[in-house]
Amino acid sequence: MTTDTAGKISLGLERITDFLRYRLPRDPRLGLRVVHVAGTNGKGSVCALISQALISAGYKTGTFNSPHFLEPNDAIRIQGVAIPASDYRDLRVWINDLDAKTASEHGRLSLFEQATAAALWWFAESKVDVAVIEVGMGGLRDATNVFGVSLVQCICAIDEDHVGMIGDTIEEIAQEKAGIIRPGSWVVLGTQGRSAAFHRVRQIAQKLSPARIRKRRGSHAAIAPPTPTTDVDLPLVLAGHYQAANAGIAFYALDVLRTHYGFDLLTDAAIQVGFQNVRWPGRLAWLRLRPAGDGLAHWLLADGAHNEPAAAELRKYVDTALRRFAQQRHILAGTAARTLNEPPPVRWIVGFTRGKDVAAILRQLVCPADVVWAVPFAQPDEMPWITCCDPGDIAHQVSAAFPDTPVTEFVSPIAAVEQLRVEQSADYLTVLCGSLYLVADLYRTLDIRPFDSAPV
């Protein structure tokens, strides 16, 4: 993947493949064992679950996610800890200089291709036992799709995202994401809400055997893959009922590793410990805001939901949380302005990447009596193709779609957070969403740095 002078994304493997094969001192792909994960929603959670289970089992595990969260270096982690910022900077300078000196007929590497090369080199030099790699965009022509062989390919839920860049229809998008499938390898296909996506991936893979998932007791998933493995109860500490499907994908991928590739330390107990200790920041995360003065702390929910399917899942979770929130507010206030059958409204703090169908996403979120605060987010490092919607544009779309919904514009997420601290209102449940880049701004504002140390 690269960007042209206009900042548009152009997918392709010629540059990155040439660089890895001919211009580095040695090809970092040689001997690197890889689990490759694609999809529209859930792939980050699946990577986190697989990685933490491998770490808990005693395997030295590298993880590469896209996009990065707070800083570019946190996309590259070993044992859950980001590559040190100084090492990352040195590595990127070396790769950039090498690319400049030995430019090929295919042109210079893009920033994402440089980051991918850095991740693979770091993993190879660190001699990881296995690398869990998340696709950046699509799959077939993504810079991570440079492996002739990978141990397992996981394909999470597919929906219409990046339309026009990786395909114009759900079938074309599914075909692009299925491009990571390797002949004679193992494919784990997650539950698909779009039958056309399932059938296209199945057609490409020719023979799939996706994990069967059934929820049990609301907080566990019982996974019954078509292998000799018996059913296993798995703890789901990542919030959201859809995480059962992600746990199913992760478990089956891990089962393939231990059954067919000699990862014998991946016992059921090790997987359970890994799933129990997993962390994946910025997804249905409850964060505490200190008040501006005396008073109670304000809690808000932050989630990176940035498309219609993710927004629909967020709304389901919020509806569940509202019932609990109403009870808590009743206890704290001593009296209730509404009955327990009438939960409080939601204050939505939203920011979006330009090009998103803002109105369609908001229709999944906003209900009568809700309010909307529109904010921008900071320009993400090393991602010049990303620009945020102007809060005024968001406010205009809110007013057009929801004429009775109050909407307020803020100059920054920090300004919105400071307003929350001043208000200390228990009349609303506050949810920040619309972009992972916006969630990252919030984490930086609160000085929360989840990848500076290993999970406990």
From TrEMBL:
GO terms for molecular function: ATP binding; dihydrofolate synthase activity; metal ion binding; tetrahydrofolylpolyglutamate synthase activity. Residues 37-182 form the Mur ligase central domain. Coiled coil: none annotated. GO terms for cellular component: cytosol; mitochondrion. Keywords: ATP-binding, Ligase, Magnesium, Metal-binding, Nucleotide-binding. Signal peptide: none annotated. Belongs to the folylpolyglutamate synthase family. PANTHER family: DIHYDROFOLATE SYNTHETASE-RELATED, FOLYLPOLYGLUTAMATE SYNTHASE-RELATED. This is Mur ligase. It comes from Linderina pennispora.
